[in-house]
Structures are given as structure tokens and as C-alpha cells.
Hints:
By secondary structure, this protein is α+β, with helices and mostly antiparallel strands. It is built from 4 helices and 5 strands. Strand 2 (50-56) and strand 3 (60-66) form a beta hairpin. The longest helix has 33 residues, at 3-35.
Amino acid sequence: MDILTLLPFIVLIGAMFLMTRSAKKKQAAAAQMRNDMQPGTGVRTIGGMYATVKEVHDDTVILEVAPGVHAIYAKNSIGAVLDDAEYNRIVHGDDPELDADGTVVPDDASSLTGESDSAEVAKIDLAKDDAGDDDAVRDAEEVKDVKDAKDESKTDGDADSK
């Protein structure tokens, strides 16, 4: 047999070996991570839920998903074991980098709008105007008169259709 004929098969076998080797390394690292879990550490499940480990058994883990709420999960459902700083940043919103800066972002925009001494803001008067009330009453009376005139022109056989 010619070596050029066997070369594609050798390359295929080598590629399959490399792919399975990297997959086995990832599986071994995940299994080691799950075996190294300790009570009190924060974890993320494969579903994306964050919880604290309470107890570790052979195939299961008891997680505290909320204060006083415990759930039993399979060890394989743990996606990542998080260090304390990352877990607190995600779950509790603690970010030590922001605390070091001392920058505080307000919850509302009231501190962003300052009163300007040089320019005075014009106030809008929302009070009712007495002259405007007379016009509104007059307009309402005209509409009522028009409706009454239409009703009087109807006979008993006419139907009210809309």
C-alpha cells in the first residue's frame, strides 16, 4: 500500500484522538471541581441559579437557594463553584472596586438637576381662568341647543341610530 493512501486515515484518527482527549480533560476538571465543594461556598447551577452549599453527599448536594430554603440537587447539576468575592458581587451586589472609588450614583436624577442662579425658570400657572369658564359654559349650551333642535325634528317613527 502507498503511504499517501493511508495519510488521510492517519490524520482523521489523530484528530479524533485530540478531540476526545480535550473533552476528557474538561470532564475531569468539572468532576474535580464538584468533588472539592465545601459547605458555605457559593455555586451556580447549570440552570443559572445561584445558591450556597449546605451539605455535600456522594451524588447529591443540599443547596440553600434562599434564606431558610433548602433544595437537594445532583452533583452533576453544579455548573461552577464561585469564590466568595464573585458570589457576593453577583448575588448581593457587593463590588469592592466601587467602594474604593467612593463614587456614589444616586437612585434618581434630582441631584443632576441643579438650581441655576443666573437663569430663572419660568413658572407655569395652572390655575383656572374665570373668563375661560364663561366660554366653556357658552359652548356647552350651544351644543345642547343643537341636540335639542335635532330631537324635536324627529317623528315617532324615526329610530335613534348611531
